[in-house]
Amino acid sequence: MADNLLELDTPVIAILRAPTAARFAEVTAVLQESGITAVEFTLTSEGALDALRDCADFAYPIGVGTVRTAEDANRAVDAGAAYLITPVVSDEVIHEGYRLSIPVISGAFTPTEIHRAWVAGSTMIKVFPASLGGPDYLRALRAPLPDIPLVPTGGVTHDAAKAYLDAGATALGIGSPLIGDACTGGDLNALRDRALALREELK
Ligand SMILES: O=C[C@H](O)COP(=O)(O)O
Fold this sequence. Notes:
This protein is an alpha/beta fold and 203 residues long. The chain has a single domain, classed as Aldolase class I (TIM Barrel). Helices cover 43% and strands 15% of the residues. It has a four-stranded parallel β-sheet with strand order 3-2-1-8. A four-stranded parallel β-sheet has the order 4-5-6-7. Strand 1, helix 2 and strand 2 form a beta-alpha-beta unit. Helix 2 packs parallel to helix 10, helix 4 runs parallel beside helix 5 and helix 7 runs parallel beside helix 8. The longest helix has 14 residues. The structure holds glyceraldehyde-3-phosphate.
């Protein structure tokens, strides 16, 4: 997955977080058709794993996010998760990902947390919440940690997306600024327009 993710035309992981996952399959179809092929279903969304099972025949693999325990990791992988994303450095999730041969993108914020999550075996590091430091913080992290693939996530807006990539981000995790209200009944054509605009911006 890591290699596929790095080779994506659009270096974005779209994050779906909503009270329920009832619309996740439809939203994922629109995103993937629009070139945003990496999509994360978050466990805080009721029914996320059932929705993932409904997407088993989708063209691109889907990840599961907000994974905090080994039990979460196993449930996610059983449902078809191609990769796992955590909001924190969780040794048990990293170890479970290694055991199951599933990439883990660990959440971390400080240089010490980022280094620790990387050495423990994470595939990439989600710098969260990225907007606290912005692109300048990411650039500062990259200087002493140039070998660690960083995925800023949390408050990454369309306007700032290019600046994070210019600062050295490998990919971006984007939830609400891209998804808007699409998971709660919002207009899917508007979602398509946002996804295509982001893809164009990041070419
Ligand atoms: O886990 C990550 C966040 O839910 C995404 O944050 P965002 O909605 O500000 O992009």
